[in-house]
Amino acid sequence: MDHVPSEARSQPATGAHAGAEERPSLKTVDPATGKPGRVYPGHTPQEAQAIARDVHTAFLSWRRTRFTERARLMREAAAVLRRRKADLASLMTDEMGKTLTEGLDEVEKCAGNCDYYAEHAEPFLAREPVDMGGPKAFVTYNPLGPILAVMPWNFPLWQVFRFAAPNLMAGNVGLLKHASNVPGCALAIEEVFREAGFPKDVFRTLLIGGKDVKAIIDSPSVAAITLTGSVDAGRKVAEAAGRQLKKVVLELGGADAYVVLEDVDVKAAAKVAAMARMVNGGQSCIAGKRFIVVKSVRAAFEQALVEAMAEYPMGDPRHADTRLGPMQSVAARDEIHDQVRRSVEKGARILVGGEIPDRPGAWYPATVLTNVRPGQPAHDEEVFGPVAAVIEAEGEADAIRIANDSPFGLGSGVLTRDLARGERIAAEDLEAGMSFVNQNVRSDSRLPFGGVKHSGYGREVSRYGLLEFVNIKSVLVHPA
């Protein structure tokens, strides 16, 4: 699965300025070893614009296809994903270091998402009658057009399919600008849709750099934009889209807080916390990052958390039993370590981990910090790696205050034996797009996914995600 489909290869540039455009190259690196991987030829700006126009042309036909035909093709995409599961998981491991086990789970999740929208898109988008006391009236949901998706590397397939499946089922078409370190994954996704039988230009990948995104946003061929990435990237994309008056959905960073109350089963709570922190090696926007623990159980929770984190030793990501592989790059690993170092300099204390191993590759161990306070990176910033920060709270109210004292608001959690108490805090008190009680936050096709504050706006997946990029149109029919 490392070949480039012929349809996705860059086509020769044409026109007066073709010779002046430099073709970019996208280079991959194996994070486990630091060794160079494949190099992919990118698209020139002129080629990218031509692809955008082709996708817009495809939209004019695709929007007229019946739901039954869209569903048939989407179910076939799910089947292709399952047939290629091993190759796709291996490709993710090669390009961004995901463990093979997590990669296999990710491919299956993508397939399930395709099946979900194949089944539910038509009823979700059915016309809704409105009683106007006489004339016929209804609300209908029409597709907008080509949706540009600017996607990150951490879930190279899932991030894309959670955008693509609902939008293609809604009658939209897709343009993917993926992270530059996963070009093979980007091309493989296009190939999945092609093999499933989707028309050629209904979903296309653009192999371009970040500096070329604005020109695609500006293109009249693009109707709307969805981005998953950093706060800085979100601001830039939102600004560019705003100038063109194009809708944007943003899923940005997170510093997810879990409130640990005094009535918990400490060992069970620590296992949930470790699982929340260590998903995808901690490289997840919705990974638990700040564990705000009521004072009376802090010491016991810390001990249990250290024991739970010990169950995530570093190992070869290609081995089925490995639970913690490398970070996505040496530069990313070094940034994580710098955040830990600066937190310690300002008073945090390392309970386990916190040292870069002497080996090639982008490795960082499972780490627990205590005495985490405001002013430390572990408290104030998003640490995108396997570092759990324990923050002490005086009680429930103080824990909620600390949890909400963050510019982010993506996911959150409550760990407690009292389910009614946990439900109240999750539903009413925590400032986040998602709040789970006694489980780690995760995305699911059936639940709306997204955040508030600097974690972005808009929703993905569920019916709410499907409705983000449709024209919600009122129709009234009165007798002549």
Question: How would you characterize the overall build of this protein?
Answer:
The protein has 480 residues and is an alpha/beta fold. It has 2 domains: 6-252 and 455-475, Aldehyde Dehydrogenase, Chain A, domain 1, CATH 3.40.605; 256-444, Aldehyde Dehydrogenase, Chain A, domain 2, CATH 3.40.309.10. The protein is 39% helix and 20% strand. It has helices spanning 45-62, 67-83, 85-96, 100-124, 158-169, 183-196, 213-218, 231-243, 266-278, 298-309, 330-345, 377-380, 396-404, 419-429, 462-466, and strands at residues 25-29, 36-41, 128-129, 136-143, 146-150, 173-177, 203-205, 224-228, 247-251, 256-260, 288-294, 349-352, 367-370, 387-393, 408-409, 411-415, 434-437, 452-453, 456-457, 470-477. The strands form 5 sheets. A 7-stranded mixed sheet has the order 12-13-14-11-10-16-17, sandwiched between helices. The protein has a 6-stranded mixed sheet with strand order 7-6-5-8-9-19, with helices on both faces. It starts with 24 loop residues before the first strand and ends with a strand. The model is unreliable at 1-19 (pLDDT under 50).
